[in-house]
Amino acid sequence: MKKEEMAKVEAFLRKRFSNPKIEVRARPKKTDSAEVYIGQRDEDFLAVLYREDEDGEVSYQFQMAILDIDLEDV
To answer: Where are the domains of the chain?
Structure first.
């Protein structure tokens, strides 16, 4: 994903979730996706963001895994 795209999606996610700490970062060696974090620490990984281009229409898929051990703290 291009920097401009990541910045637009980051702004959208921050507004949508009312959280200015959301960051969209480039993935090493990948151009079709980015990583989403909350906060400054790398352990705050949230999701992978995929860029889809189908018939000239671009969309972004937000893929977030929730581990069963994460649910123990709820």
So the answer is: 3-73
Structure token pair of residue 21: 């700490």
pTM, two decimal places:
0.85
Residue with tokens 């994903």: 1
What is the strand order of the sheet 57-63 is part of? 22-26, 33-38, 45-54, 57-63
Q: How many residues does the chain have?
A: 74
Residue 38 to residues 5, 13, 21, 55: CA-CA distances in angstroms? 18, 11, 5, 32
Which tens digit of pLDDT belongs to each residue from 10-65? 999 999 999 999 999 999 899 889 999 997 766 788 999 999 999 999 999 999 99
Furthest-apart CA pair in the chain: how many Å? Answer: 43
| Spatial distance between the Cα atoms of 47 and 24, rounded to a whole number of angstroms | 9
CB neighbours of residue 61 within 10 Å: 11
